[in-house]
Amino acid sequence: MAFLGNFNIAEDMQVKILSSLLVVVLLWIIRKIICSVMKRKVTDLAKFYHWRRVVDYTFWVLIILLVLGEWLHGIDSIAQFLGLATAGLAIAMHDTVANLAGWVFILWRKPFVVGDRIQVGDTRGDVIDIRLFQFSMIEIGNWVDAEQSTGRIVHVPNSKAFRENVANYETGFEYIWHEIPVLITFESDWQKAKNILLNISKEKAEHLSKGAAEQIRRAARKYLIHFDKLTPTVYTTVKDHGVLLTMRYIVKPRRRRNTEQDIWEEILTVFSHEKDISLAYPTTRFYNPGVDPGVSVATKNE
Asked: What angle do CA 121, 126, 130 make, to 5 degrees?
């Protein structure tokens, strides 16, 4: 009290300041004790993370309620005060308020939760933390192929959940469609190649779609999700440099690269034994008027 008196602070204000500091210190000590006990008792990292978030949120809510109650004591019209304070905050702290509203939206509507793989705008990653004003992701993609982790942690303002498109790879329906394009020459036996690719896709990927049917039935209770065909298939298209056979199958997002590697290795192994099937690649042909084109044709890789 004597120390605060040196700053010419009224006695009632001194009481409010000291009581507010006491509340904060006591709650902080209680929070540390609870977290310390949970750290020893809860061995599962995911459960520990969620319980720590609950403790943190409770800590901040109690601080706001107790401290605000102390400072508003004696004000006749609390509603009037809160109305003026809210209007001032909305103007002076627009982004902060938007991020706080985004946090409430994320917790309430749950467009994603910790552990989900999502894309917000141009940023993709696995959600590792959700806080009052921002959420954090381990980035995937960017300069790394097949949407694998780059190792960078990206912090995104919660307001992005309102302002940007949010794509969730896993909530509701935990599978995505993946395609592998295989381009063969026009001279190849494309029907034989298509049958080979279809057999490979069934062998390597058909088992991945077994759990998808049940997932769709559960997701259909909340979302209008419907697929006529879940088993792997191969589509045929003609391109400039050859016949394009596109393998399409359903897979969990985090298994895309491994399944694609397994399928490509099998394709290369099988095609190496087929004399009438060749992979195509861009070429440039040069025609010499003085030479019979049926006798000499020069080719060069682009």
From this structure: 85
Torsion of CA 29, 33, 36, 37, to 10 degrees: -170
| Amino acid in the structure at residue 301 | N
Any domain includes 292: no
Contact, 138 vs 155, CB < 8 A?
Answer: no
Residue from 138, 139, 182, 171 nearest 271 by CA: 182
Residues 101 and 130 in one domain: no
The pTM for the full model equals 0.62
Closest CA to 192 of 155, 132, 229, 245: 245
Do 180 and 208 lie in one domain? The reply is yes
Domain boundary among 63, 89, 107: 107
Per-residue pLDDT of the chain (302 residues; tens, 9 = 90+): 554 455 555 666 667 777 778 888 888 888 888 888 877 777 777 667 777 777 777 777 777 777 766 666 555 555 555 665 666 656 656 677 788 888 889 988 889 998 899 999 889 999 999 988 899 999 998 888 778 889 899 999 999 988 888 999 877 677 888 999 999 999 999 999 999 999 999 888 877 766 676 776 666 666 666 666 778 899 999 998 899 999 999 888 888 888 999 999 999 999 999 999 999 988 776 666 665 555 444 444 44
The stretches of 42-129 forming alpha helices (DSSP H) are 45-72, 78-92, 94-109
The C-alpha atoms of residue 290 and residue 293 are separated, in whole angstroms, by 9
